[in-house]
Amino acid sequence: MPAMSMTGFILAGGKSERMGRDKALLNWHGRTLLAHMVGLLETAADEVQVVGRDRLPDRIPGRGPLSGIATALEMTSTDANLILAVDLPFLTKDFLLYLRSRIERSGRRVTACKIGSQFPLCLGVRKTLLPEIAHRLVGEDWSVHAWIAGSDAEIISESQLLSAGFEASIFRNLNTPEDYRGAHT
Question: Looking at the predicted structure, is the pLDDT value of residue 61 above 50?
Answer without folding.
Answer: yes
